[in-house]
Design a protein that fits this description.
Elements lengths: L1 H35 L3 H4 L14 H8 L1 H32 L7 H13 L4 H10 L17 H12 L3 H9 L4 H9 L4 H17 L2 H6 L8 H10 L2 H7 L3 H9 L5 H17 L2 H16 L3
Helix pairs in contact: 1-15, 3-15, 4-7, 4-10, 7-16, 10-16, 12-15
């Protein structure tokens, strides 16, 4: 009886700790969402915690009326989709080749790949390389340099090694080529690991603001995260609004409650919510994909 009581107390303590950790993780995002729906002038007074004190949609109205932010949003979507598809395809093909025991120099290639995980040339050599490849101020600079992930390649390789060799041998007997085996047998069996690594890659491409800020000077090519970083570091949007024509100034007078902080929170919500919506669709593959890809026979 005493042991059962102690077990219940222990379980209750675990639930309390998890609840506290969950609250500390969720509250900052919730508070940012509340501020984005609250009047900017009222937010300046402080005390905004769980609910908006003066509910308004003016912050989002300003964001969605700024064509440059909408263009940046679609650039982020384009980069995430293209970057994820190309990265997963290239990394999976690379990993499948590394599983072939007949590949000459396979161990050497693997060692060279692992070295790149721990040592890099640094920002200046990378900048000079991108410049020499004529990738400066192009959309491709956000996709091509990171198209192969060694970490993802290792997970793919481990997963592919777990596929029964008999499947490939039977396909070879039927006359299938390596490409046929890869696309008809290996990839269809790799759904969980593909979904998991695609999620990791998509989150990286969506959240990466640093790469465009270094290699892109054309503001028309900047993604939403880089724009958001600029907004958080300055009052750039308010300055742009002050330089509007007379018609836009009339709208500005109508939106006196908008401040740089409320505008930043609204922009952050627009930049964050889309990638969060991806998680429910791949959640069932998440744990399974990571565990399968990380275990070895």
């Amino acid at each position: 009886m005493k042991l059962a009581m102690e077990d219940k107390m222990f379980v209750s303590l675990i639930y309390i700790v998890l609840a506290v950790l969950g609250f500390t993780a969720i509250y900052p995002f919730w508070n940012a969402a509340v501020i984005s729906f609250n009047s900017g002038a009222d937010t300046m007074l402080g005390g905004i915690t769980f609910w908006p004190r003066e509910f308004t949609l003016q912050n989002y109205e300003v964001v969605f009326k700024d064509k440059r932010l909408i263009d940046a949003f679609f650039i982020s979507v384009k980069r995430t989709v293209i970057g994820t598809v190309l990265s997963i395809a290239a990394t999976a093909i690379f990993a499948y080749g590394m599983t072939k025991r007949g590949l000459i120099g396979r161990k050497f290639y693997m060692i060279m790949c692992v070295i790149t995980m721990y040592f890099g040339g640094g920002l200046i050599p990378s900048y000079l390389l991108i410049q020499s490849l004529n990738l400066m101020d192009t959309f491709e600079v956000m996709v091509i340099p990171g198209i192969i992930s060694v970490w993802n390649m290792i997970i793919f390789r481990t997963f592919f090694n777990g596929i029964p060799q008999g499947l490939e041998e039977s396909a070879q007997i039927d006359g299938s080529s390596n490409w046929g085996i890869f696309f008809r047998i290996v990839l269809p069996l790799s759904g969980p690991v593909i979904a998991t690594l695609a999620l990791f890659t998509a989150v990286y491409h969506w959240n990466d603001w640093f790469t465009p800020s270094i290699y892109i000077t054309n503001t028309d090519l900047l993604p939403i995260q880089t724009k958001l970083n600029q907004i958080l570091n300055s009052n750039i949007m308010l300055e742009q609004m002050q330089n509007m024509d007379s018609a836009a100034q009339g709208r500005l007078n109508k939106m006196r409650t908008v401040t740089s902080k409320s505008l930043s929170m609204a922009t952050m919500m627009v930049a964050t919510v889309p990638i969060l919506c991806v998680y429910p669709f791949v959640q069932k593959y998440f744990v399974k994909g990571v565990l399968i890809g990380s275990l070895k026979e």
